[in-house]
Amino acid sequence: MSVKAEEMILVIDFGGQYNQLIARRVRDSGVYCEIVSYKHNLADIKAKNPKGIIFTGGPNSAYLPDSPNIDKEIYSWGIPIFGICYGSQMMMHSLGGNVCEAPEREYGKTLVDLDNTSPLFKGLPDKNICWMSHNDYIEKLAPGFEIIAHTPACPIAAVQDKARKLYAVQFHPEVLHTENGKQILSNFVYEVCGCAGTWKMDSFVQETIASLKEKIGDGKVLCALSGGVDSSVCAAALAKAIGKQLTCVFVDHGLLRKNEKEEVCAVFGEGGQFDINFVCVDAREHFYGKLKGVVEPERKRKIIGEEFIRVFEAEAKKIGKVDYLAQGTIYPDVVESGLGGESATIKSHHNVGGLPDFVDFKEIVEPLRDLFKDEVRQAGRELGLPEELVIRQPFPGPGLAVRIIGEVNPESVSIVQEADAIYRMEVDKLPFEQRPSQYFAALTNMRSVGVMGDGRTYDYAIALRAVTTTDFMTAEVTLLPQETICNAANRIVNEVPHVNRVFFDYTTKPPATIEFE
Ligand code: XMP
């Protein structure tokens, strides 16, 4: 399923680390945007009929023969082009300017003099802090261009050829360190490309529902619901489109967060918001049985993975042949799997590829394939999902098993569930922007002596984790307010039986992982 956007900006990726950020900023400004690799077929790029094209940054030197490049024909199409960092150098190099190693490398926040009579800098001050990160620079302009920004170390920091609608900047407008960066991208989209701003989540949701209806007809769809944001929004869109033709299967493996099952059942189950077939499989005993005595983390994961498939398979068999299998794949999964932009494969995502071969279906539907995470949340709101479901943080497939050191059993699960619920409640008192990307409690296998009332205790220690990350491949520790941690620690030792100590995990990833297993 693909979006039929009336107008589109195309980001051509030359290996820059901020490719997704550029696309997100453009979409935030109200215009649909896609990312393709610079190796993408040129005729195909033209056929997409973009209102404007953006070249990303990249790690190469434009003047070296093997560096990424794009056929010069693209400059003659009359479509506005905006080059960023490497993209700007490549544009100059291709069109007859000169790019070379800069005498002085620029890195970090830099005060840039701007010519705000240029449409690109409309409404900006004439001095603006911009994020620079380059070793090379443009030494000589290509014919037809004029300089519209400079710094002492970078005399050609931005250029334009108004007649050909070609623009380029040495700095990165897409990163937050560049003041008014959003405005610069928005100026390109509206002032240069003349976009109208038709990308709105309410119309996306309506169009998606209509096209799901059309595609699926009277077919049957099976959706594995995990209770996470992506699968929930995917199920909600399908529910609105095809109602009873949809069957959602939710497996309670006994490793869910506190109240998670109840929340999912309240929304998708009988008497909930949607008129669908909903199957909640209570497989807790089955999983606990298989996990009895197992302490080795990889072994736990393997068991859970295998048993999950087995349980799902049994349910799928009861349902029989379906026409479609629904998956909550989202745009970063597509890009990061190497199918979208140019970034090296960051992670092989569980949602892309790896289809269960035991389900008899003819095709897969992925209604959220074109959306970024924040857009998925927005779509969830449009579909009427409750806020607590829409703002959920990521939760791993093996659930709380990867947050328990030692054996997973009803008692250890209950301790970590209670501690985690308290910790999340305390962190959720912070405004949304201040909350970490992921935060949870884990149960360690350490027992130590404590004192409670007049008695001695010999109980477990809970570890609290809070990390900030964009890609989940590396992560920083989030320095939560002391008050948040202390309140959580106090409540946990007072309210959760068998816990008498709470630690905060100050380890980054690497060397630690985000999960605690
Ligand atoms: P780690 O612990 O590897 O986690 O640093 C990185 C991110 O991936 C999530 N995670 C998983 N997600 N199935 C999932 O769907 C899994 O088996 C799994 N293991 C880890 C983790 O929560 C974090 O966001």
Provide a short characterization of the protein structure.
Helices cover 31% and strands 24% of the residues. It is of the alpha/beta class.
The average pLDDT is 92
What is the makeup of the main sheet? 9 strands, mixed
Total DSSP E strands: 18
Number of helices: 14
End-to-end gap: 38 Å
* Oligomer kind: single chain
Protein structure class: alpha/beta
What share of the residues lie within helices?
25-40%
Topology:
Blueprint: E1 8-13, H1 19-28, E2 32-37, H2 42-47, E3 52-55, E4 81-84, H3 86-94, E5 98-114, E6 127-140, E7 146-150, E8 158-161, E9 166-169, H4 181-192, H5 201-216, E10 221-225, H6 229-242, E11 246-252, H7 260-268, E12 277-282, H8 284-291, H9 297-319, E13 324-326, H10 331-336, E14 363-365, H11 373-382, H12 387-390, H13 410-427, E15 438-452, E16 455-468, E17 476-477, H14 482-495, E18 499-504
Parallel strand pairs: 1-2, 1-3, 3-4, 4-9, 10-11, 10-13, 11-12, 13-14, 16-18
Antiparallel strand pairs: 5-6, 5-7, 7-8, 8-9, 15-16, 16-17
The protein binds xanthosine-5'-monophosphate.
Outline the structure in words.
A nine-stranded mixed β-sheet has the order 2-1-3-4-9-8-7-5-6, sandwiched between helices. A five-stranded parallel β-sheet has the order 12-11-10-13-14, with helices on both faces. The radius of gyration is 26 Å and the shape is globular. Residues about 345-355 have low confidence and may be disordered. The chain has about 525 residues and is α/β, with parallel strands linked by helices. It contains 14 helices and 18 strands. It binds xanthosine-5'-monophosphate (XMP). Xanthosine-5'-monophosphate binds near residues 397 and 472. Xanthosine-5'-monophosphate (XMP) binds next to loops.
